Amino acid sequence: MADGGWIALQRKIQTSFVWANPYVLKLWLLILFKAGFSENKFLFNGKEVRVDRGQFVTGRVALASEYNQGVTREHMLSPTSINRWLKKFRDLGMVDIQTNARYSVITVINYDLYQPGGQLVDTRRTASGQQVDTIKNSNNSKKESSSSSARSDVLDFWQQNGFGPMAPKVMQDLDFWVKDLQAIGASEASANQLLIKAMSVAIDNGARNYGYVNGVLRNWEGKGFTTPEAVDAFEAERAAQRAAKRPGTGRRPNTRAPIEGHVFTDEDLPF
Fold first, then answer.
1. Is the pTM of the predicted complex or chain greater than 0.70?
2. Per-residue pLDDT tens for 116-155?
3. Which structural domain range is residue 235 located in?
4. Alpha-carbon distance 91 to 46, whole Å?
5. Is residue 263 part of a domain?
C-alpha cells in the first residue's frame, strides 16, 4: 500500500451498510487503500506474486495486523472478524477473493469507481499459473450483481425507515432468512422482497425492531409464503372473512366497551 495517492468515494456510501458500522467502514477503506493502482509484482512471505490493477495480496492475520496498527485494544478486530467481513463484502459483490494455502488475492469489484484512470484487465494469473476471470465469468458477475443489488435494497430500506443502524447480528440473521425462505421455494429476489415487506408490516404497526420483523417472517415461513403476492392474497382473503363477520351479517354484534389495557391476540396481528 503506497503512502501517497488518493481514492474517490461517492456520497452514496452514506446509504451503504458499511456506513452504519465504523469498524466495517474502516475495513472497507483499508481494502480500497491497499488495492493496487496498476499491475505489480512483489514478495509476500518470500514468494513473488503478480497482481493486476484493483488487486492486492494478503491474509486475514496480515490484514488484521494492519487494521489494528495504532488502535487501542478495545477497538481491535480479530483475524476471524476480519475474515467474516471479507466474506460479507464478497457475498455483496464488493470484492472477489481467490485463496490458496499461503495467501488470498482480493480484487475490488468496479475498482475504476474508486480510482478513475484505468481499466481492469479481464484476466489474472493465480499462484498455479492458471488464468481466471477477474470477476469469475459473465454469468456469475450478473448473478452477483443482481444479488448485491437486492441485498442492498434490504439494507437501504432498513436504514432509511427508522430502524436505526443495522447490527452485524441482524444482518447475519437476515441473510439466514433469505436462505430459509429459499429452502421453502422462494427465489432469492422474492426472499429479499419478503424481508422488505416484513419491515413494512413492522412500520405499519409502530414496531421498528428486528424482533417484530423476525416474528412476521416466522409466521410467513410457517404458512409457506414464498412471494409478497402470496402474502397479499392471504391478507385479502382474511379481510373478506372479517368483513363477513361484522354486525349485520348474521353475527350478534359485540356491544361491550373496549377494555383499557387490552392485550392483542394473534387474531389482531396483521400477519
1. no
2. 765 443 333 344 344 344 434 444 444 444 455 557 788 8
3. 141-268
4. 31
5. yes
